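Assess this today:

___
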Amino acid sequence: MVTLADVARHAGVSASTVSYVLSGKRSISAPTRERIQRSIDALGYRPHAGARALASSRTGILALMMPLRTGLYVPVMMEIAMAVTTTARAHGYDVLLLTGEEGPEAVRRVEGSAIADGMIVMDVELDDPRLPDLRAAERPAVLIGLPADTADITGLDCVDLDFTAAGARCVDHLADLGHRRIAVLGEPPAIYERGTGYAARTLAGLREAAVRRGVGLLHRPVEGTYAAVAAAVTRVFEERPGTTGLVVQNEAAVEPLLALLRHQGRAVPEDVSVVAVCPDQVALHASVPLTAVSVPARDMGRRAVERLVARLAGEAPRGTELLAPLLTARAGSGPAPRTAPRTHPEDRRGHGGR
């Protein structure tokens, strides 16, 4: 079946322009209208009667774009989704969940078919290909995340944790405790390769603070398996034997890391302090309760819905809202040891080397 998006591609215009021509909501130039009409005739497109009705009225539905991509920690994504759903219901809206990796096509489908009144967009990349279509869409959108260039979000709302400040807060905490060599176990490599915003911003904050505090910093992306964590940590202690602080931004790697340190005979926090960027329940339920900067997943989901509902009520975009990071000190961190940590048998054997 021919869709509105097919017509838009054939005519060389956006889906929203085709929608405006069909609905008459906006004035479109005569040449563009004629080109769209020729595409409609050539493709045999017939607008669905229900879609035409929806284009001129509210659906009571919000679209949540949550692409389930490689490397993402799904429990956090689902916690945000649950907060979006419950907050939306409190405001009288249902939620349409879109989990495919369609990128701009998903935005065009929502805009062109009028199946939702507005969009909430997750897993925002530094150079996100969905942004041009979101800016051009008639329906309002809120991002849970932040791209690199704030000019890309003109007319949109953004809600997110200030991950740059979160990374800096981790380094400052460890530096205040006397740690001079810190290693970071980051997200899986795929997260950095596609330019996922929160991971890149956290790393930028870590590096800035390390320079400011005169602290040595190593960063190692890592999968969340025991084998991958063991290889990364062994390499860290080979390259920087005096490392006494670890920062983890990878929820799946938390328990493998703590198990590995126990196996190596490294006490937490007497030999090595561990600080995480993760939801509170991950830090609290770890085998050693971890000092952590909380990822406020529920708060971000709630605020995103409230922003979108306000936009639908006629409020102008408010721009970007970054939530200040909150670090809670727990048993996972303590003063740096007075002497460099001893060499452990696992280090001498070189498991998981370069």
About this structure: The chain has a mean pLDDT of 89. The chain has 15 helices and twelve strands.
